[in-house]
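Sample pair:
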Amino acid sequence: MRRSFRFGLFAVALFAGLAGRPAAAADLLVFAAASLKNALDDAIADYGKRSGVKVEASYAASGPLAKQIENGAPADLFISADLDWMDEVAKHDLIRPESRTNLLGNRLVLVTAKDNPIAITLAPNADLLSALKGGRLAIGDPQSVPAGKYGQAALEKLGLWAGIEPHLARAESVRAALALVSRSEAPLGIVYATDAAADTGVRVAADFPASSYPPIIYPAAVVKASTNAGAKAFLAYLESPAAAPFFSHQGFTLLAPPA
């Protein structure tokens, strides 16, 4: 109930903030997964210099962003951290299907505070509870956060989910889970490799085996309700060699072939 209430407040606040955004014909509004912030901010700055177009980004977990698009939020472009939430908006005919592309890939890691010397091997039936030492495992809420969903899948595959579930700190986004570890409020957390690279307060304690979770794919698409012709051009830029270094520098895998 508390989680539903928090989501409701988040949704109202986000929609209200967007509704009050000054209209500008040249502006683009991108709804993007929280894990993209560092790389996408850099790409947006570069695109602005090249084109003169001002691009704004709203970052959050993919689930709440998808729900906002369903509720009519004025996004021009949606970049999800998994296929399911893009499929959700597509099911409601809210994106332009011809624009949809699989843009990026990522990896799943277990992080700890930078000064925590713990060493962990993520294997079937590993003793994560002992590693937590009475603390909690930070993870994006699997109900709305793709990183949390991937994390749950990995823990289930390794036979660890049932034992660790009562000891989770469920966060509203992958970056919120990362912050819990960076501030030493949780001894361990499950995030993307790119998140770990973006925060100097954490280090990677272990990589999840690639076979333990589905491929992490970031699809992007133009929102059908958008009347901004620049949305397609910006998406083309994100797929181009010009934007590639901003993503690869953060550790993303480039999936879309450069134009």
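The longest helix spans residues 2-19.
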